[in-house]
Amino acid sequence: MFKKILIANRGEIACRIIRTCQRMGIRTVAVYSDADATALHTRLADEAVAIGPAPAAQSYLVMEKIIDAARRTGAEAIHPGFGFLSENAKFVEALDAAGLVFIGPPVKAIGAMGDKITSKKLANAAKVSTVPGHPDAVEDEKLAVKIAGEIGYPVMIKASAGGGGKGMRIARSEAEVKDGLRSARNEARSSFGDERVFIEKYIEEPRHIEIQVLADKHGTTLHLGERECSIQRRHQKVVEEAPSPFLDAKTRAAMGAQAVALAEAVDYVSAGTVEFIVDKNKNFYFLEMNTRIQVEHPVTELITGLDLVEWMIRIAAGEKLAFGQKDVKLNGWAVETRVYAEDPLRDFMPSIGRLVRYRTPGSPEDEAVTVRIDSGVEEGSEISMFYDPMIAKLVTHAPDRTRAIDAMQAALDAYGIRGISHNIPFLTSVMANPRFRAGTLSTNFIAEEFPDGFQGSEVSGENLDVLIAVAAILQQRRAGREATISGQMDGALEFDPAKPADWVVMLGQQANPRTVTPENGAYRVTGGKADLLIEVVGRLGDLVLPCFIDDRPVTVQVDRRGPALRLSYAGADIEALVLTPLAAKLAQRMPVKEPPDLSRYLLSPMPGLLMTLAVEEGQLVKAGQELAVVEAMKMENVLRAERDGKVAKIQAKPGESLAVDQAILEFE
Ligand code: ADP
Fold first, then answer.
1. I need a surface site. Which of 22, 35, 126, 142 has the fewest CB within 10 A?
2. Three-state DSSP class for residue 262
3. Architecture of the CATH domain 132-201
4. What's the 653 CA to ligand 1 centre distance in angstroms?
């Protein structure tokens, strides 16, 4: 076995690999860019080597620097994680030449599977079912239209070098084929430096289901069942689970057998994933093979009890797989959500900054439930613009699907993140979605269930009652504590927290009177739709407050905003001001301040640089017309007019840095 392994990656996957090495008694070497000098992975490893400036192209992607770091520290093998150099055949060749072991598949397999046209041909030859289509690259518009007609609409135009959902277009007509061919080729050229695209049938209402394979150097190739990854946004996975709610044992075995056949056809070694697209009649078609560990591997680990990184290391060291296909048992259900630093209310715009507060969910009370958090950050960490904005992978496992989803909802409620925007409210709303719960998935799920994007969750009747009750209890406890402090000072105890008290929870102008009565360490709250008996476990001032409502565990998150409380639960939040009945009466007599009308302004949707202004004062604009371009996170964002109007005043100049919500211009 290796004595020392270098991890050529960062963030959660680097930390996850280091932990397995530690358990196996293997020493670890981290590499880090300037931006990651104090990052968790850098500190977790036994040794760490600086490899250059923050941009990945100058650090994590530079093969020579990684090889040099391995030489200097005496590491014998390199685990690439995913992304960066993990599927780079040249890197593997360079490691071979340097006498270092690559913890992954051989060069030949990476090369064969790195190109979609080549891999599709290989799959056909190995009798793996592929999406009907044309086997070669297409350049000519006329030919593309002819091929599309033969395949039958709709068709998918895809970049052969594609990845991450880039260079892909659906076409439903001749005109769309022409358009799609041009734009897919352009995107492929600029993203991958390779403009070859091919055409295949677009599978309607498809599900994305993939098979995990594991192969050793001694001729054994196994599969570890499937993962369903149909919940995608713009062809990028957001939620994954294992097993799939759609597959029966027969289809699973058939897909598994084809995945193994394909792996064997390219002499595959190590862990890999064969991705399939599955139609509503359970016909499945090969999409591509990923020749690395995948982001969503934890769901497979939780249902099989195997550590995939451990097996990648053992296989790279020459060990034989210690079990056969019959020994692979799928146990219970696992769900993974990807927690991203992005703002779901602003079209999932990436959000950068510091994790001012960071609380991960604790262990569940229920022993049959596991909560796993794979993360590379901690409180105080910076989510930088240089890398993928994933904060963590949250994974739950339970005996059945419903309980695994329930556990996920509870864990999302208990995940406290402040300082940046994150997608937890969106993930919560997916977990609560009846169609998701029924398992009726397709890759169009998000587009169909959230047709206008994510607008935030409504606070429903019962949840609203809970939030109002908790707000009243917090005020009661606060008043009690203040009374004790001032009582000690002047000897007069005005407020007795052990006695019932009346409060009015103001939500804006709406008054919600409640009576809070202490009862055996808990509080009975009356005056709402139902009487609630609530025990608040946390301390005043905690960000995340575990509570029991009539013995049911729920977690409420609390932020103080001056005198107001912001409470959130189940993806929804309220801002409340809790007053005594007298103060509430006075407050209601105060004149209401009208909020300013912001619809007359073009606001910057994110912090960034104003690149260009396309209009001037006095100009008439039409809905959809380009107004300005703001650059943020290396992306240019075109801001367009939402309706027809006239520009009254320009409020920002090109070259100016903009804060979020800063006005760029004003309409009449
Ligand atoms: P990438 O390598 O860019 O991730 P994939 O080939 O793996 O590209 O496809 C990504 C996603 O695009 C799939 O999960 C699926 O949702 C969709 N997709 C790809 N090919 C087809 C197709 N022929 N029909 C329908 N959807 C497809």
1. 142
2. helix
3. 2-Layer Sandwich (3.30)
4. 41
CA of 307 from ligand 1 middle (Å) equals 28
End-to-end CA distance of the chain: 72
**CATH 3.40.50.20 corresponds to the domain 4-103:** yes
- Of the residues 12, 210, 288, 296, only one is catalytic, namely 288
Which ligand 1 atom sits closest to the C-alpha of 204? Answer: 25
Query: 379 catalytic, yes or no?
Result: no
Per residue in 459-488, pLDDT (tens digit) is 878 889 999 999 999 999 988 888 777 665
Q: 225, 299 in Cβ contact below 8 A? A: no
Distance 570 CA to ligand 1 centre (A): 32
| Bridge pairing between strands 101-102 and 77-79 | parallel
Q: What pLDDT, on the 0 to 100 scale, is given for residue 428?
A: 96
Q: 601-667 adopts what CATH topology?
A: OB fold (Dihydrolipoamide Acetyltransferase, E2P) (2.40.50)
Mean pLDDT across the chain, nearest whole number? 93
- Span 248-267, average pLDDT: 97
Q: What is the pLDDT of residues 351-395, one digit of tens each?
A: 888 899 999 999 998 999 999 999 999 999 989 888 999 999 999
- DSSP string across 308-323: HHHHHHHHHTTPPPSS
Atom of ligand 1 nearest to the CA of 166: 3
- Report the alpha-carbon angle 445-449-451, nearest 5: 110
Q: What pLDDT does residue 492 have?
A: 45
Q: pTM of the entire structure?
A: 0.87
* Beta strand residue intervals within 33-100, DSSP E: 47-50, 77-79
Q: Which atom of ligand 1 is nearest to the CA of 156?
A: 23
For position 491, what pLDDT does the model report?
Answer: 46
Domain residue limits, the chain: 4-103, 132-201, 207-449, 461-587, 601-667
User: What is 207-449's CATH number?
Assistant: 3.30.470.20
